[in-house]
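Fold this sequence, please.
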Amino acid sequence: QVPPLVLAHHARLGGESEEASSALVAAATSALGRFDGEAAIAMLDMAITLSDGAAARVLRARARTALGRYVLAEEDLAVARRLGAQEEADEVEAWVAHFQRQFDRALARADDGARRGTDPELRSVCLGLGGWISLARGDLPGAERRLTEAVTESPDPGRLALGLAGGRRNQVRPEDTVALTRNTLAASTASVRFPNDYAGMSAAMAL
């Protein structure tokens, strides 16, 4: 398989701007997965110059959010919405608002993304974020509903079990809390950077 950057280079030489842009978006996705936001943004700048598109705008907004550049992220999201990426923009905007402690707005956008989304992973992320916010605000029924649905729908439910464990802990259900944190300890991926530390903390607090 040809590496995305090599493909992008040859596509640019051949005047195939859309193909080059798509390859740069693929390369930027890998860079962001390595937490190299600056490299991702540099590639996405080139991709958008070659051929602007919703995928590039949403991904650059995600990278800018990770680096705390919230105003610039929102500019990208506005363009992405005009290009048709409503539910994807909802999800990223929910994180933008969450990181700025705008919890009413974050919850509204997370719920919008869950309602409009058709991709199970996107829906589960929106439901999980909405559940976390509900839990932090003391809305246990709202947290339970969103997090249960997130775990049920997610292609990788282990990463979302931690939020549901927090709800079980607040309901004084220690056995259920420990069982859910075991799922999180075994999970290979997570929405948070250090899932195992949080899972162990939840289990300890339940006992």
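The CA atoms of residues 132 and 163 lie 6 Å apart. The two ends are 50 Å apart (CA to CA).
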